[in-house]
TrEMBL record:
Keyword hit for Transport: yes
Top-level taxon in the UniProt lineage: Bacteria
GO molecular function annotations of the record: porin activity; structural molecule activity
One GO cellular component, as annotated: cell outer membrane
Organism: Chlamydia pneumoniae (Chlamydophila pneumoniae)
Matching InterPro entries: Major_OMP_Chlamydia
Family: Belongs to the chlamydial porin (CP) (TC 1.B.2) family.
Chief place of localization: membrane
Protein name: Major outer membrane porin
Length: 223
C-alpha cells in the first residue's frame, strides 16, 4: 500500500449480530457442561467511512507519485453501512460451578463463536459519493490502482464480499437458591472481530461513458 491503512484502530458506530441456534450439551459430574451450538446468523454494521478506508482514486501509481500529487484521498466525512445475509454459524464452550456453599454457587463460562456470512447490501453516503450495491464483489490481494473495469457489472477477477466473524465470551456469576427462585448477579466480557480480508470494492459505474461531464462520481461518467 502507498501509506498506512486509515481504518486500523478505528471504532464502529453500530454493530448488531443476530443468531438463532440449537444447543447440545454434555454434563459432567452434575457440575460442568461442555456444549456447542449450531444455527444461522446475520448482522448489520455501520461506521464512519474512515473505519472502512473509503478513498477517492486519481489513478496515480505510488511508484511515480510526486510531492504535490495524492494517489488516493481518504474520505472521512461519510458513513458506510452493510447488511449481511443469513449464514451458518457455530460455537463451542463450557460452563460450570466452581464453588458451592449451601445454597450459594459461584459459576463461570466461556464460549467461542464463528460465522462467515456474505454481504447482502452495501450503502455509502459521502459528500463526493453516494451509492448502494446489492451483493457487492471486490478485489482481494490487489493493490491500487484497481483494474480499469472495476465497478462494472462484467468486471473479472472479483470475489463476493464475506465477513469473517469471531467472538470470545467469558463470564462469571454468583447465585443463591431461594426455594423455587434463583436470583443471581454476573459479569461478562466479550470481544468480537469482523474481518473482510482487506477486500477492495469499487463504486459501481457504467461500462461506457454516456455524458461529457467532469465529476468525482464516476457513475455519472461511466469511466
Amino acid at each position: 500500500v502507498d501509506r498506512p491503512n486509515a481504518a486500523y484502530n478505528m471504532h464502529l458506530h453500530d454493530a448488531e449480530w443476530f443468531t438463532n441456534a440449537g444447543f447440545i450439551a454434555l454434563n459432567i459430574w452434575d457440575r460442568f457442561d461442555v456444549f456447542c451450538t449450531l444455527g444461522a446468523s446475520n448482522g448489520y454494521i455501520r461506521g464512519n467511512s474512515t473505519a472502512f478506508n473509503l478513498v477517492g482514486l486519481f489513478g496515480v501509481k505510488g511508484t511515480t507519485v510526486n510531492a504535490n500529487e495524492l494517489p488516493n484521498v481518504s474520505l472521512s466525512n461519510g458513513v458506510v453501512e452493510l447488511y449481511t445475509d443469513t449464514s451458518f454459524s457455530w460455537s463451542v464452550g463450557a460452563r460450570g460451578a466452581l464453588w458451592e456453599c449451601g445454597c450459594a454457587t459461584l459459576g463461570a463460562e466461556f464460549q467461542y463463536a464463528q460465522s462467515k456470512p456474505k454481504v447482502e447490501e452495501l450503502n455509502v453516503i459521502c459528500n463526493v459519493s453516494q451509492f448502494s450495491v446489492n451483493k457487492p464483489k471486490g478485489y482481494k490481494g490487489v493493490a491500487f490502482p484497481l483494474p480499469t473495469d472495476a465497478g462494472v457489472a462484467t468486471a473479472t477477477g472479483t470475489k463476493s464480499v464475506t465477513i469473517n466473524y469471531h467472538e470470545w465470551q467469558v463470564g462469571a456469576s454468583l447465585s443463591y437458591r431461594l426455594n423455587s427462585l434463583v436470583p443471581y448477579i454476573g459479569v461478562q466480557w466479550s470481544r468480537a472481530t469482523f474481518d473482510a480480508d482487506n477486500i477492495r470494492i469499487a463504486q459501481p459505474k457504467l461500462p461506457t461513458a454516456v455524458l461529457n461531464l467532469t465529476a468525482w462520481n464516476p457513475s455519472l461518467l461511466g469511466n
